[in-house]
User: What shape does this take?
Amino acid sequence: MKKSSAVTTPTFLFLCLLLLLPLLARSNDDLIDKICQATPFCDLCEASLRPLSPSPSDPKSLASAMANVVLGNLTDTLGYIQSLIKHTHEPAAERALAQCAELYRPVVKFNIPQAIDAMRRGQFGFATYVLGDAEKQTDSCQKGINSTGANDESAVAITARNKQVKNLCDVAISVLKSLMNGR
Ligand SMILES: *[C@@H]1O[C@H](CO)[C@@H](O)[C@H](O)[C@H]1NC(C)=O
Ligand SMILES: *[C@@H]1O[C@H](CO)[C@@H](O)[C@H](O)[C@H]1NC(C)=O
Assistant: This one.
């Protein structure tokens, strides 16, 4: 039994610290968990916020980061739509695509960047409104795509992207609501 006293106090403290380190490193993750679990698409929320480096460490940076993910995806979708317009020769499809591009351009260029700016000044209500509006634009775009009756590869791809952007907007709005409710 004498052997156990060979573990000196400094060694013991060091071992305790080693055990604590992973817990300390996880505190950001726990904030992400807590915030994401309150959103309607927890997996999407986690997939959006986990890979970020440096990891956002407070609710306000999480909300900004989420709005940036929406902006990234919508920018990407707009680029995809614009590339399709160049290669489409079917008038109905071309009209639907052009309408989507028109809907998305101001949202990508002005509205969401403005919302991200407003969040820095604490105007979370305005940011929530803008993201809700962006979500409505994805519905309008999708209606147009649906009305062409097209079910080819590009229609399927746009539908998937629209859905992703819509869900990301839902997540971002929910993160903003958590922030506004001080949770
Ligand atoms: C779109 O959202 C997904 C899921 O959050 C993310 O992993 C991806 O990086 C985003 N894409 C762009 C271009 O921002
Ligand atoms: C578009 O069509 C899909 C199924 O084809 C449907 O689930 C979706 O609700 C429609 N979207 C809109 C905005 O009309």
Observations:
- The first helix runs from residue 9 to 25.
- DSSP finds seven helices and no strands in the chain.
